[in-house]
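Q: I'm writing a short methods note and want an example of a predicted protein-small molecule complex. Could you take the sequence and the SMILES for zinc ion and return the bound structure as tokens? Please keep the output block clean; save any remarks for afterwards.
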Amino acid sequence: MPTPPLSDENWKDYPEEIERLEKIAQERKKFNNLAEANEDRALYIDWAKDRAKRVHEEMKADPDIKHTGKEICGFDERLALDGGEWEIWRASAEGNTVFDNRRIDDRDVCIRKKCERHANWRSIFADESQLQGRLFSEHLVQLKHEERKIKDRQKKRSIRDSREGVVETGPWLS
Ligand SMILES: [Zn+2]
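A: Understood, no commentary inside the block.
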């Protein structure tokens, strides 16, 4: 059953709820964006791993480099960008090209074989992105749940009000 629209009078009666619903809508938008950005990061991490392998193979195949044996570090400095810097890069022409092609073509990576500085970057960044993703989606579920509770309350009230013909004075935050 669709929620019956509340009259202006009802809306005015429960400013706390209206305010909270607005906040929830803002939060949901914000966290949806964060979750999306995080999914992009996860993709980028995968592509960075692929690219590291590719660069390593290319180096091995290049007779001038004479690169053998252990895999290169392959760290990409873009992984170290903070949230805002990443967003700017992601929106740039370069960022769009990478995401359109679903691969990173430049060879701008750390080619050290034994790299202390970026040790375990693959698992560190992948784990972080997974954890972030989980936190974001848990928070989004909470917000959705809270929003539903408020809307259910409004619905019940509106049904009761129309039945009894009584204007309630709320707020009903029980
Ligand atoms: Zn490195």
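A: Remarks, as requested: Residues 8-157 form one domain. The radius of gyration is 26 Å.
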